[in-house]
Amino acid sequence: MEINNEEIIIREALPEEAKKIRDLIRDAMETYRMNSGINTDVLESLTESTESVKERIRRHHCLVAMNGDTPVGTITISYCDNPMKYSFSSQTARTLREYRDCAYISRFAVNEQYRDTGLGVTLMNEALRMPISTRSGLVLLHTAISNVKMRDFYINRGYVVLDSEDSRGYERGLFAYMSDQNGGDNLTA
Q: Is this prediction's pTM over 0.85?
């Protein structure tokens, strides 16, 4: 992938890149926090340790977009054998009951310099193409409902808002990408 005449390589992250990935996530999540109107002490991604990131890289599918030896984007896809754990209401429970398992997206971050270049779309598309995402036909994620840019980004990628709740002090939406219902052709720029 080429962005602004720079060669960007997307691949699985390595444990030894954990500190740089942690720093990328912290920077991106601080912007997300401010744009969402979230209090400073709510997002665990802002205080996550390098060891925690290293463990996530080992246990899950953590993609990283690299420009040379610098991570400029990342996204993590995890397997969940019980999508019902994400249910907020009986309506969502009815939807999730149709699925045995799901993939869950977290720690999606793009360096400020690379936002609005298509890198985020590319990372999301790569995540949705991974076997862990296509196996059950259901991919879930959370984002702040108040963050219009992120909310619209996910909706434009084919996600729907299943539910929302405010147990963390802000309205957090549960978004779902159901590839089996969408024919899997939502992977667009």
A: yes
